[in-house]
């Protein structure tokens, strides 16, 4: 029997459910379709909808362009984390089902994130992170689920806009929205959100994220040596198109969005604590930052000693300890930035546009195909080039092939950042690179890819190991990588270099909407990146730009500053290339340890002899000479060897194989005289004609009786026996012979190919 309390609980619950459903029905009828279509100037459009999926999330939006659709959910905890930064996690996952594919791994399901997924997650993170309000430290997660992909539009742009809409629709405090577009250049025409085929013909692949007031939040691009004026025009065009996206998301949020939650502000630091810390540290900090003899380690050590001294004098208990630490960090940032405005001189004594001292070396170790050491200030990278066969090219996963159109890469750069580079202890290497290492490596690879010839006969692996790091190690990798490629003899079209540009701003009454003054810094240090407002990396040749990545830490950057940063970076890049060319100006013609690649044409009637049964000739060739053979076209093969003598030996071996006498054709069901050449536990190895590769006649086919060893039948090496031929195994190609089927009345003539080829 039910209890009265349970009956009342169920009855009241059903009433509430019916009431909520009626309210929901009325709401749905009033708001017919919770979606908005945003047109672009070229006739294409972006559709953003909400309210259909994942309604338990704090915010959810589905963005669609063409038939590519991405769902992004936003969830944030109510309780702030005990950190001094915004704990934001972005997870973008490419689902094979969205492309109508099945994963090719053993488990046939999505496993760890691919390089494409990690780089797209970083794009989204950098686009939305600057607009979270100061002091909001609640753990937040954005999950991007690829619903469908049409191989026309890349999902990354769709994902950024969906993430912006999800945060705007949610109750999570966020000072958005932002919009994002991809910009391409075909000829002289600037394209907005080009298709995959249009992008293949484009000299620019630029992603721009901006806010309503034409403030740039993020830039990421790769280019084929695009000139500076064309690049600046592309940025302006992209920002102009973003305006409609931001307005559309704002309208959608106003109609269907939730009211923003009120989060508890961080505990205010007592004014007496701030003043005590300032009085004890400000003058000393000014002395440290004006002492130009300091390097990275000595400067950090001096600041750390001062911090410990201030904490010892001011901190009274554990609660006050955190206030003192936060106050000290705030004073450090204020003093460091104010000195740049006062003196127009940086903490290492350089002027605002001055590049650190540069030194270079090439051809460091003879066994390496190419090597270079690039030192800029206290940033040092060691780059090496390894040349291998085309079979070593990096294969892409099926979904990345569908979205990016690239099946394999014959040039790739691996970036390594060991902990000793910053005088730390930590994990070294590993099978999977971290997100930061993967992002820096991808940026450096973009900076160098346009100068590497696309028809180069080898696969190129460029590694960049950071030995010392004090800012802009990824751009140092571009410089060192360019020199290593030339040292290896790779016919690059031009030298390439990279530089990082920083920014320090001053706002009126700490209001980020009203900028009073700013300073642009060329070739920034690590501390200038940490305490500054921008990390603007640009790579390219003297002629143009090949890669760009701008991380902006304030809620948007005016176009005027973006253009000035582009101009300043271009001038610094040309200056760095001049220094690099003093060491090596042109690619080497040839090195003694260069691998050799040759193409040969094999006539169709000789291809079977060339390959051998199941490719046996090629396998034997690789085992004996170290030369790899790959098929480029139907009759064109490529020999790749460590040196010329190995390739010559391989060519001689294959010529002998093709000149060998033609194998006799064996007739199915015919009886042949076979010669025993070896006794084994499992049977006997026999040949049917001179020069034949021995094949196994198994014990089970030797006699109608069961035997465990051929010697039980008195068989010996050199003895001749009659066998019947049953063709080849359709899978392995192994010849199938039997002796036991002949242990009865003879029904056919015996063919002896070991003697004269006549019937007996």
TrEMBL record:
SMART domains: KH. GO terms for molecular function: 3'-5'-RNA exonuclease activity; polyribonucleotide nucleotidyltransferase activity; RNA binding. Residues 669-740 form the S1 motif domain. Its EC number is 2.7.7.8. Pfam families: KH_1, PNPase, RNase_PH, RNase_PH_C. InterPro entries: ExoRNase_PH_dom1, ExoRNase_PH_dom2, ExoRNase_PH_dom2_sf, KH_dom, KH_dom_type_1, KH_dom_type_1_sf, NA-bd_OB-fold, PNPase. Coiled coil: none annotated. Keywords: Cytoplasm, Nucleotidyltransferase, RNA-binding, Transferase. One of its GO terms (cellular component) is mitochondrion. It comes from the Eukaryota. GO terms for biological process: mitochondrial mRNA catabolic process; mitochondrial RNA 3'-end processing. PANTHER family: POLYRIBONUCLEOTIDE NUCLEOTIDYLTRANSFERASE, POLYRIBONUCLEOTIDE NUCLEOTIDYLTRANSFERASE 1, MITOCHONDRIAL. Belongs to the polyribonucleotide nucleotidyltransferase family. This is polyribonucleotide nucleotidyltransferase. It comes from Cloeon dipterum.
